[in-house]
Amino acid sequence: MDVVYYLIQNMLPVGIPLLLVALGGMFSERSGVINIALEGIMLFGAFFGALFVLNVQDSSMGAQTILLLGMLVAGISGLIYSLLLSFASINMKANQVIVGTALNMLIPAVILLFSKMFFNSDGITTSKSFYIREIPVLGQIPLLGEMFFQRTYLTVIIGFIILAIAVVLLYKTRFGLRLRACGEHPHAADSVGINVYKMRYAGVSLSGILAGIGGFFYAVGVMDGNVSGHTGVAGFGFLALAVMIFGQWKPIRIMFAAMFFAFLRTLAYSVSLIPFLFDLGIDQTYYKILPYLATMVVLALTSKNSRAPKAEGIPYDKSQR
Amino acid sequence: MENYIVEMLNITKEFPGIIANDNITLKLKKGEIHALLGENGAGKSTLMSVLFGLYQAEKGEIRKNGKKVTINNPNDANALGIGMVHQHFKLVEVFTVLENIILGVEPVKSGFLEMEESKGKIMELSEQYGLKISPDSLIEDISVGMQQRVEILKMLYRDNEILIFDEPTAVLTPQEIKELLQIMKDLAAEGKSILFITHKLNEIMEVADRCTVLRKGKYIGTVDVDSTTKEELSRMMVGRDISFSVDKEESRPGEIILSIKNMTVASKTHKNNAVRNVSFDVRAGEIVCLAGIDGNGQSEFVYGLTGLEKLVSGSISLKGKDISKASIRERSASGMSHIPEDRHKHGLVLDYKLEENLILQRYWQPKFQKNQFIRFDEMRNYAEDLIERFDIRSSQGPTTLARSMSGGNQQKAIIAREIDKKHELLVAVQPTRGLDVGAIEYIHSQLVESRDAGKAVLLISLELDEVMNVSDRILVIYEGEIVGELDPKETTTQELGLYMAGAKRNTEKETGHAGE
């Protein structure tokens, strides 16, 4: 039983960044813009979030306050960086995949450069610990308390709150209905007076905010406060894209997909704790391939039935019929 | 002075290189159905787009109830009570009917969508006007006819009183057309004013009160429908007399060109076979028409015949050569020419130039290729020759993008390509769909000419008039089977209709497939 608790406790902080970034991708693609720059935006958000933490970690602020403020900083930086994608792909009607790729390539290099210039290292490492041993009251709930509210991070709770907001926003509000219309049939949206450009800006900006936050949560919950230009976010941005596709652009399914990948990753890193796997005598490095291998297999199996928003990737052109 | 609800006065709208609307005036009375008639490219859609706010006119003014108004976008039009059913529906396929109707004017309660209230209002409207819908179905699951009713409800839900219908019947089956025309009459009786863009004269004669005719961007005139005739209207539209019957000599069938035996083709949408055990021959020098109501296996039959789909069983031979398993290129090279049903999907590469589209069937021949390179000079000469001979009109000649051409001229390009290529059999699938009378006349004459040149012609058509006028022999297809063979000279439209509806058959029912 302890192993199960351990796996779940460790899965959640890994799954949450994936979830948030995939939700970001979902908002962007539902509005009709492919956001392949998630990886770059994550790293951008993580860097500024960590920079903020680095500057305030020695002050008297409480750890969780710093986390919340860092999240804010990361979200805003992600938003700003995503505006480049919006401008290029919505206003200038550039190819969205190319712009996204360019944005992805830019960030690790920039971080390396600045880190070398100012910190004489490959990145920055914060020393503030955001770890929570046990959340009062909730942590005492039998079974669930130990699984979800002990040895955890605040990021987990925030992640699920954002998921709930995303569901409501997408399906229960006017904004969500219009956003989805723009990703499916922008001409239909336009003909009933919806500003397609505005909605697409909104979709990409949401993805920027969520990817920025996701990047920061990755740095906090997975990397123990380290952001490096070399390792970046270890392909989590792309993994999030896979999660989004596996989740069929639907928030709840995306949550399950994110947790599936997170579970595999946690499993891969905990082989020595699980006697059954450990006894197999396979080099533990091979297990670390698991989440990435699973991505390929799952996508290969599901992509035939996957139904992406119809108009994604196509710059909106009023005059085209 | 009469009372007009909308007046469009001296509207001029130019596009680079072309004047789409040249000083056009259109006046709409309250409660009337006003048809707007013209050939493809006459400027009807442009004029309506100006009224709906999609384009702004350079000159002229629009008045509503006598007062001058400016319409800069669809929102302005909507605020003035102007709604439009577009030719290509503007519906989100994965949304429900309800969501599509309220999109853009969604009622919200404390920030959240409030669907029940609007559902009530929509169902009321639906009953009041006899517009049957199922509000919670997805658009992708409902018929084209219902999609159109959704579009109409979209306008009614917004309390629009001026309704623009842009070629609404082009995508409908005869039964659905009948229903739609009745709905339009009901709407007009309720006080709605309707602008009806079309090039189908029968429909105008049936429902419209008045008709304004445009030709090549110019205003020709407005007439009362009661005091005019189809002939008069078509003369105004085309500028010359049009014959509604096809002039042709008696056919002289020769040797068998196409022979189909027990052909069965699977369906993509359901488990049963879409085409079941079909056998027939087509001879040189005759036009055989495969008639039937849409969705009875015609499309799948053509896919099987032309190689777009594999056969489940059966054989096809062309001039005695078995081509049942041949590739599309081989079939084409053996003498099969194909004018496809969907000219955008299977007929043209829309983002290629006209000249490139014209050599799609032949680019690999030595005439157009040397050392693996396209011979661009030959391509240009050939394209110019075809454009001249088949009168394909476009803004930039051979270098025009296919996408930017009008439907009629796109079709002419396909016909030019397929007829000019060496062929023994011409398969024409709904070749006149969505085209105006001038273009239809032209295409029919091309089919007859092809026949008289000793080719076998297989025409697949849904239009009863076309079936009766053009063909030498009619085969009726119903639920994937040939249920009748008729002689157009001896049968009547009514009888043909009975066969098409499955109420009558004169071929033996096959029993072998009962277990399929």
Description:
With 321 residues, chain A is mainly α. Chain A has one domain: ABC transporter involved in vitamin B12 uptake, BtuC, CATH 1.10.3470. Chain A has helices spanning 2-30, 38-56, 63-91, 96-119, 144-148, 154-172, 174-184, 186-191, 196-221, 236-246, 251-269, 275-279, 284-287, 290-302; strands spanning 123-125, 132-134, 150-152, 226-228. Chain A has a two-stranded antiparallel sheet with strand order 1-4. In chain A, strands 2-3 form a two-stranded antiparallel sheet. In chain A, helix 2 (38-56) packs across helix 9 (196-221), helix 6 (154-172) packs across helix 7 and helix 7 (174-184) crosses helix 9. Chain A is globular, with a radius of gyration of 20 Å. Chain B is an alpha/beta fold and 516 residues long. Chain B folds into three domains: 4-238, Rossmann fold (3-Layer(aba) Sandwich), CATH 3.40.50.300; 245-335 and 423-516, Rossmann fold, CATH 3.40.50; 344-421, no CATH class. Chain B has 17 helices and 24 strands. In chain B, the strands form six sheets. Chain B has a six-stranded mixed β-sheet with strand order 6-9-10-3-11-12, with helices on both faces. A six-stranded mixed β-sheet of chain B has the order 18-21-22-15-23-24, with helices on both faces. In chain B, a hairpin with a 2-residue loop joins strand 7 (108-109) and strand 8. The N and C termini of chain B lie far apart (69 Å). In chain B, 44% of the residues are buried. Residues 510-516 of chain B have low confidence and may be disordered. Classes of the chains: A mainly alpha (321), B alpha/beta (516). The A-B interface holds A 168, 172-174, 177-178, 180-181, 184-185, 187-194, 307, 310, 318, 321 and B 54, 73-75, 78, 84, 86, 88-95, 99-100, 103-106, 108, 111-113, 154.
